């Protein structure tokens, strides 16, 4: 039970710090278009899966472009995160696109078709 609470606090801290790093410290307009939805740590806290999404306000910024920018800047982001966390180790970061908004939209479309 206590481990679950500690893990949850670590995930929340990483989410908060990554949001600050990407929005304020990175000089990359492509990355500023994304929003971090969730962080999930493995039980040993060695790996963090970061789920992200974005609003396509700019047609030039695509999901693929953001994914490639995240991959290119992963080491820099991890280094900045290491300076902010008070932990012995910093988890490896794996960025994954969050499809929950798209799935919700598909379900809503299906329900609207059924109700007509």
Protein described:
By secondary structure, this protein is α+β, with helices and mostly antiparallel strands. The protein has helices spanning 2-25, 63-72, 74-84, 100-115, and strands spanning 34-41, 47-54, 92-97. A 3-stranded mixed beta sheet has the order 1-2-3. Strand 1 (34-41) and strand 2 form a beta hairpin. The longest helix is centred in the N-terminal third of the chain and has 24 residues, at 2-25. The mean pLDDT is 91. Monomer. Binds 30S ribosomal subunits, but not 50S ribosomal subunits or 70S ribosomes. Belongs to the RbfA family.
Write the layout of secondary structure elements.
Elements: H1 2-25, E1 34-41, E2 47-54, H2 63-72, H3 74-84, E3 92-97, H4 100-115
Parallel strand pairs: 2-3
Antiparallel strand pairs: 1-2
Helix pairs in contact: 1-3
Summarize the structure.
Monomer. Binds 30S ribosomal subunits, but not 50S ribosomal subunits or 70S ribosomes. The protein contains four helices and three strands; from the N terminus they run H-E-E-H-H-E-H.
């Amino acid at each position: 039970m206590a481990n679950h609470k500690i893990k949850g606090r670590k995930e929340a801290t990483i989410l908060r710090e990554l949001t600050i790093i990407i929005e304020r410290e990175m000089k990359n307009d492509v990355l500023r278009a994304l929003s971090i939805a969730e962080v999930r740590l493995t039980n040993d806290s060695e790996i963090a899966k970061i789920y992200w999404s974005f609003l396509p306000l700019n047609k030039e910024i695509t999901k693929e472009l953001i994914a490639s920018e995240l991959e290119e800047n992963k080491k820099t982001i991890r280094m900045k995160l290491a300076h902010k966390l008070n932990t012995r180790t910093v988890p490896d970061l794996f960025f994954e696109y969050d499809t929950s908004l798209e799935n919700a939209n598909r379900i809503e479309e299906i329900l609207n078709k059924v109700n007509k």
